[in-house]
Amino acid sequence: TFGQAVICALIFAGGLGLVAIVMFILWAAGSRFSLQDRLITREAMGVKQIGGLLRLLRYSILVDISITLIGAILLIIPFSRYYSPRETIWQAFFHSVSSFNTAGIDIVGPSGFIVFRNDTLLLSIVIIVAILGAIGFFALFEIPRVRRFNRFSLDTKIVVVTTFTLYFLGVLGTLVCEWFLGTTLSDFSVLNKGFTSFFNAVSASTTTGFVTIDFSQVTVQTMIIITGLMFIGGSTASTAGGIKVNAFGVLVATIWGALKGKKKIEAFGREIVSSQVFRAIAAFFISLTLLSTGILLIMSSSPGIPFERVLFEASSALGNAGLSTGVLADFSTL
């Protein structure tokens, strides 16, 4: 358990970011923040503003701890069906931390969350906690205070709309492909087919990495859908990986504006500043270059592995998603 506790602490620190943790400790110790300190913290947390940064940092840590504890308390109920009272508490806490920080690490056993594939309550709690982690601290900071969508900042609007659009398309695509073209959902009831598609698609989109189906058996179409979700990932200032939904949303708005011949890039009736557009384009092409390079290197050294599986594994690695089709052991070593 001690080793698991160390891993749990590292997951928590990794979710917030080492710089954010250090800055919080310095603030708690009474240190004064210089402008340079604030700029470093801003970049580490992936936010644009400097004003109110310390308040956002405090709020982020408070939210992380609060959601983790609430998730752990809720998970005690379903986990109590499988473990002793003492083990139940630890399992609930560990997996709540792993879910919110989108680590995808479990202490269940070799089969992972596949053993819970029919436990809708447990999986629902896990995926809700993961969504809250991937939506971003800035959005979690703003949404409860503003409440009305039309008053949200442009960044939060992009995050919310892009995130849930990707969830919907990902779930629908996975459900259709696996129900009508694949076999991984054949043993599930109609309702469980839908829920299983929801859990696994959202787990990929949040880069959480928990799965309840064998991804070595999914269709090529599903692999492509999940690959796209992992590549995009979650929001900035969140615990998720990927190029971020903010960047993807800005890219979509940029393409749409270009097709309509607009001189200014807009979303929800507001202009997107050029610096944000450039960052989104840079993030996309840098990530695409890294992904392409990784794929070329893998395929040149392991030519017998199908392209779609190499693409899946490389995207999972780049997005820190932790999903696999099981072919990683077949990759060549140095």
Strand content: under 5%
Strand order of the largest sheet: 1-2
* Low-confidence parts: none
Domain count, please report it: 2
The description of the largest β-sheet is: 2 strands, antiparallel
Q: Given the helix and strand composition, which structural class is it?
A: mainly alpha
Average pLDDT, all residues: 89
Number of helices: 13
The helix-strand sequence is HHHHHHHHHHHEEHH
Proportion in helices: 55-70%
Q: Could you characterize the architecture of this molecule?
A:
Helix content is 65%, strand content 1%. By secondary structure, it is mainly alpha-helical. The protein has two domains: 134 residues, no CATH class; 101 residues, no CATH class. Strands 1-2 form a two-stranded antiparallel sheet. It is globular and about 60 Å long. The model has no long low-confidence stretch (mean pLDDT 89).
In short:
The protein has about 325 residues and is an all-alpha fold. The chain has helices at about 1-15, 20-30, 35-45, 55-80, 85-100, 120-135, 135-145, 155-180, 190-205, 220-230, 245-260, 275-300, 305-320, and strands at about 265, 270. It has 2 domains: about 1-135, no CATH class; about 230-330, no CATH class.
